[in-house]
TrEMBL record:
InterPro entries: HAD-like_hydrolase_sf, HAD-like_sf, HAD-SF_hydro_IA, HAD_2, HAD_sf, PGP-like_dom2, PGPase_prok
Record-linked Gene3D superfamilies: HAD superfamily/HAD-like (3.40.50.1000), Putative phosphatase, domain 2 (1.10.150.240)
Source organism per UniProt: Thioalbus denitrificans
Domain of life, source organism: Bacteria
Enzyme class per UniProt: hydrolase
Protein known as: Phosphoglycolate phosphatase
Reaction catalyzed: 2-phosphoglycolate + H2O = glycolate + phosphate
Length: 226
């Protein structure tokens, strides 16, 4: 499907701009060690990223995507994870191939840019700075900026309002079904990257308007937009 030319592009963080799994997995595994529990490893953690820090910790404790651990275990685990991730965040996280070129193109072509992530703000801003990409975004909406996270449309609508763009002229670029659902509910167009984290499922099944293999391919997509 071809896109209508947007005025604003909002980019998801984990799995879209940044491969953050090595640092997240190291932090989860340190937390598990402190709790006397077995490590989870990068492969499982990759399938658990995308719904914020609290849900990641719940997934590590239960081994399930949507199960709730006992409250007491969660209350012990969350501060341990936060301590570890404050330490590890950005250490081994890297931009995915094509991100630097893609952001440069988008800025050069005059698109208003924002970052909308479910990652908590205390981790989002240092990570964007560590990777040298904080300067691209006119707005950053983190997982705890508002009471709602993606797949709720509120973070996307908040960014659109702040940047003065109508939802119909906005494009969300993400890696997971939560990005697609949030974009649909907000009345945005949505493109997804094929390389990110989507709980191990092919993102095409979430039916975004387009799938790209690198952010550099956004150029082709946007230049073809009507
Ligand atoms: O789950 C997280 O903490 C971050 O996820 P997102 O950047 O893909 O929204
Ligand atoms: Mg993501």
């Amino acid at each position: 499907m071809s896109l209508k030319r947007p005025q604003m592009v909002l980019l998801d963080l984990d799995g879209t701009l940044v491969d953050s799994v090595p640092d997240l997995a190291a932090s989860v595994d340190w937390m598990m060690g402190e709790l006397g529990l077995p490590a989870c490893g990068e492969t499982r953690v990759r399938d658990w990223v995308g719904n914020g820090v609290e849900r990641l910790v719940m997934r590590a404790l239960t081994g399930e995507l949507w199960a709730d651990p006992p409250e007491e275990a969660f209350a012990r685990a969350l501060p341990l994870f936060r301590t570890a991730y404050t330490e590890h965040n950005g250490r081994h996280s890297r931009l995915f191939p094509g991100v630097a070129g893609g952001l440069e193109y988008l800025r050069g072509a005059g698109y208003r840019l924002g970052c909308v992530t479910n990652k908590a703000e205390a981790f989002t801003l240092p990570l964007l700075r560590a990777l040298g990409i904080d300067g691209y975004f006119g707005i950053v909406v983190s997982g705890d900026t508002l009471p709602q996270k993606k797949p709720d449309p509120a973070p996307l609508l908040h960014a659109a309002e702040r940047l003065g763009v109508a939802p119909a002229r906005a494009l969300m670029v993400g890696d997971s079904e939560h990005d697609v659902k949030a974009a649909r509910a907000a009345g945005f167009q949505v493109a997804c990257v094929s390389y990110g984290y989507n709980h191990g499922r092919d993102i095409a099944t979430a039916q975004p308007d387009a799938v790209v293999d690198s952010l550099e391919q956004l150029r082709t997509l946007l230049e073809a937009a009507a």
